[in-house]
Please model this.
Amino acid sequence: MLALFRFLSRWPLRLLHVIGALLGWLTYLVSPTYRRRMHEHVAIAGLPWAQARGAVANTGRMVAELPWLWMRPPGELLGKRLQWQGLEMLDAALAEGRGVLIMTSHLGCFEIIAQAIAERYGDRAPMTAMFRPARKKILRELVERSRDRPGLLATPATLAGVRQMIRALRKGEFVGLLPDQVPPDGLGVWVPFFGKPAYSMTLAGRLIQQTGCASLVLRGERLSNGRGFIVHVQPGPVVGKEETPESAAAIVNAAMEAQIRQAPDQYLWSYNRYKGPRGLDIGAAPIEQAD
Model:
């Protein structure tokens, strides 16, 4: 698998996106379950299919660009392939010195966000991003090796990983989360997502409440014809200390919904957002115990 990813990483991004779009449509056409889930989730969001139809190809592009994103040599910068909108908000949040929680949904090229921040700020404020270890050993090795880049620290979804995120925020650094993913059992609450109950993480709200960090919502827009990406920076949700786990999670979900509505043709509608949680030996100890 590593050898294949290294081989594909040398291909032009434009070619990978072309292949990915074809694979996206092929999967959509041959899998009734996949196709039904996409349509159901778009309908739950109250959007016409015409607005989300482009997500079929973009889901394939998301997969096809991973070798380029993950296996690109550490010294090869994003350069002209990356543009920013709202960069001044990132600069201002970092200058406050209270840590910055970066949130994004499964929208566009969400993998590019951590790399973009690490490339720009990593020498003074590393980015710590949480990921869920893959079940298969070969994939787990690939993910762990590919996401550790200069200025980017990948931490697993364990209690130790949560504590690492808290330490990073208290040192005034960046921490990244995808709040629209289903958390492990015991680490979420059932609150609406596009109006339908979904098991939603409480971690984002707890980090804001307990560290006093700044929060921002970022979106990695995938440009056509392999031209690169635009990272959009927007204000994050306001979660007061008085909020309950349920109300805080609802506030974060609303922020993710607003972001998805900006570019529904790049959202991962095939993600099983409304599934029940699975167990993970992370424990339920309060995160205040972090050093």
